[in-house]
Amino acid sequence: MVFYAGLASLLVAICSPVDYWSSYYFFVHMIEHLIIVFLAPVLFVAGAPWIPLMFALPVKTRRKVGRFFYLSKKARGFRVIGRFIRSPWVAVISFNAAMLVWHVPALFDLSERNQLVHVWAMHTSFFVTGVLFWLQIVESYPMKPLRGPLWQAGSVLVSNVIMTVLAMSMSMLTTVSWYSTYAHVPGVSLSPFADQQIGAAILWVCGDFWAFPTLIVVIRRAIAQEGSFSNVIDRVTGRAATPTPESVRPQRVPTPTPTDGTAKS
User: Fold this and answer.
1) What is the chain's alpha carbon radius of gyration, rounded to the nearest angstrom?
2) Which of 37, 40, 73, 176 is within CB 3.0–4.6 Å of 9 for a Cys-Cys bond?
3) Distance CA 121, CA 102 (A)
4) Mean pLDDT across the stretch 46-51?
5) pLDDT value, residue 68
6) Neighbours of 169 (CB within 10 A)
7) What is the DSSP letter of 176?
8) In terms of Cα–Cα distance, which of 169, 199, 196 is closest to 31?
């Protein structure tokens, strides 16, 4: 059900009035981006569709494909590329880079003028990098996150800060609209700059909506792994772990039992 919810949210973003009105209002376009880069990927990953999707192929074809990609020497290059793409640093950097690059005014306006760029380049990069990012945080059988909860918390914090800076840049740190495609939209009375400010506020607020719950989850994982919150702080700051009461309590040396049959007076 979670996987189908991810597909449904993706369809809402690209095949509904959300996509239609995104050409008229920047803030609707921002809602569309957030669905594609955050909501749909996390539901897709949590649904763990990898093995069921493999069973969509006939048995013989599935075995041939599996043997080729996992065992064949000819596919060694594909395995190297796969490990590179799956690496945590590549996932986090590409996730944030996609959001920043596509909000550069020249590239954003290009995507609005060319629907092939809009759908197959912008939206695809958002969704793919979103899936790669959430694979580092959400367990998706048979794949597991490659780094521990402290690294996951750091990646969430860094990503949230980047999204916040982008939102501030589009609202508080400028006085003009960045995107010429929204400057002369027929029938739209909302000013392009006000539209951009609303879109920036949506990015800012919704960024907190995904970041804070995710941080709570990964911090709880870290506490379970380290034993206590103080140990988590010690690990982050590089200090030695706080000694437990058992470790500082003096150990009693047991009195040896006489072995010559005489009782102790």
Assistant:
1) 26
2) 40
3) 10
4) 92
5) 86
6) 14
7) S
8) 199
